[in-house]
Amino acid sequence: MINLSSPELTRAGFLRLMAAAGAAAVAGGAAPARAAEQPVQTRPIPKTGEALPVVGLGTWQTFDIGTGADERAPREEVLKLLFAGGGKVIDSSPMYGRAEAVTGDLLAKLGVQAKAFIATKVWTNGREGGIRQMEESFRKLRVRHIDLMQVHNLVDWRTHLQTLRAWKDQGRVRYVGITHYTSSALDNLIAVIKAERVDFVQMAYSIAVRDAEKRLLPFAAESSVAVLVNRPFEGGDLFSKVRGKKLPPWAADIDCASWGQFFLKFILSHPAVTCVIPGTAKPQHMADNLAAGRGRLPDQTTRKKMVAFLESHL
Predict the structure, then answer these.
(1) pTM value?
(2) pLDDT exceeds 60 at position 28
């Protein structure tokens, strides 16, 4: 059995194994166990080999709420499902209003801070301003260390990466990353990866917006940089385009039972992707998202078939 989370697995070996596994799964052979019974898959963080579940949770808009129990209860259930389903990556930012504080409150209430892989960001100018903002993130999230601190949208990245290198050496943050959400910034992300030591890059990537495939995803793999994917559903636009339309029958061949899984499995089938972080406030959507991290993934032929099907039916 292939152990994709093994620390000894090199990135090149990982790419070869993922290609072989995807081809074997879709080509046929013995049917796997029912996808719902399988754990969410993991992939190694390239720099360390630490296993990370391939489906996480974004908090943009969805966790920017007040203190009311009626608002918080669904988010609490979302977090319960995330951990129960084998996930643990939670991504936030000071840019997301009250999302960090809400996340911190709920994680503390559930007693699962130690289980979470917490990623947040610095989003301001200047060294001292960045330090103050990051210290506030620690307070809101109620943690003593943050797993991944990212420079949000590359704002003053030179300044903040200098601070984060020191904090990583001190053990305050475990990993350092950079982010952006537009395709126009992909070349800038590549330039920073070339110039600096970063562990993660977060970018927009979906079945409809595939610019990252041209250069950034291959470059991240070559550079042993983990990839977080944001905007997998294009802010919900993909769902509006397929509303009322049925999945193709062959979607079952990749253990796909919903459009959400269709979109996420396409992303996860790219071997350079480490984890996708769709945001949601609805427990049923969290469960559906996690299902995309189980079972078979499309190979290259099926990926092309997915794109062609979507383009011909929209």
Answers:
(1) 0.88
(2) no
* Average confidence (pLDDT) over 149-159: 97
DSSP per-residue letters across 105-136: HHHHHHT-TTT-EEEEEE-SSSHHHHHHHHHH
15 or 268, which is more confident:
268
Token digits of residue 297? 């993934």
If you search the block for the tokens 């290609």, which residue do you land on? 19
Q: Where are the domains of the chain?
A: 50-243+270-295
Give bridge partners of residue 89 from the DSSP assignment.
117
Query: Looking at residues 259-283, what average pLDDT do you find?
Result: 98
Domain 50-243+270-295 CATH superfamily: NADP-dependent oxidoreductase domain (3.20.20.100)
Q: Is residue 19 predicted with pLDDT exceeding 70?
A: no
Asked if 175 contacts 199 with a C-beta cutoff of 8 angstroms, the reply is yes
Q: In what order do the strands lie in the sheet with 117-122?
A: 57-58, 89-91, 117-122, 146-151, 173-179, 200-204, 226-230, 275-276
Q: How far is C-alpha 302 from the geometric centre of its chain's CA atoms?
A: 22
